[in-house]
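To whoever is on call:

I kicked off a structure prediction for a single chain this morning and the downstream step that reads the tokens threw a length-mismatch warning. I double-checked the sequence; it's 256 residues and nothing unusual in it as far as I can see. Pasting both halves so you can look.
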Amino acid sequence: MIGNYRKNFKLFKDNLSDQLGCHNNIEVEMAFERLINIGSVSSIIDVLEWYDEQKRKCTMSSEIIPLNECKQWSMDKETGSFIHNSGEFFRVDGIRVSNTTGREVTGGWDQPILTQIGYDGGILGLIRKRINEVPHYLVEAKAEPGNYNIVQISTTVQATFSNLKQAHEGNATPFSEYFLTPEKVGATVIFDRWMSEDGGRLFNKRNRSMVVEIDELKELDLNDRYRWLTLWQLIELTRRYDAIVAPHIRGILSAV
């Protein structure tokens, strides 16, 4: 199986990489990874069963409550914004939109909008590692209160800078050191870009999207929420199954 990976990658690199406009070996290999399913440590069926199990095991639930009942959140009398007591995370602002001749409502409108403190949201990062020489990416079955089905397959790290600073006074974000200080933990950065967010609901927000690679021999301490998937599998899950892959992975997939 590994021999097939090497053989097919060599053929791809020799014959097609120039036509695809790839500029270095990593870009060439990632273009190849998108197209072929060889050497993955688990099948798509295995991944779907793992995802369903993580949904069943998840105890998180959420319900809509009045804004004025949100603990540690309050209305700032000076700005009129709804803010967290720590001054971190995000705030709910009002925004007035005008000169909207290219939109459905030409006279403009008012709306609430979420403003990330500092505008730069956080880090969305995937760890890449070769398993039996085939590149795999570490994903998490991550629970978020607003997620469809609560649990979605997300990046290794999905954390705002407020979370990374532990403004919530909770636990540190697992594996964040591989993206904050990759050189100290022996990781190599292979993709690092600021990517924009949905401007209809989020004001001037962007996130730092990253892919870092670790040595094939390095072992990570993983619980069962984490899984190693190939790039082909991530794309296949996005293309063929409804609403199980988080948008942050989709954003990275569009760029690498």
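Update from on-call: the warning came from a stale cache, not from the record. Cleared it. Sanity check on the structure: The chain is about 25% helix and 30% strand.
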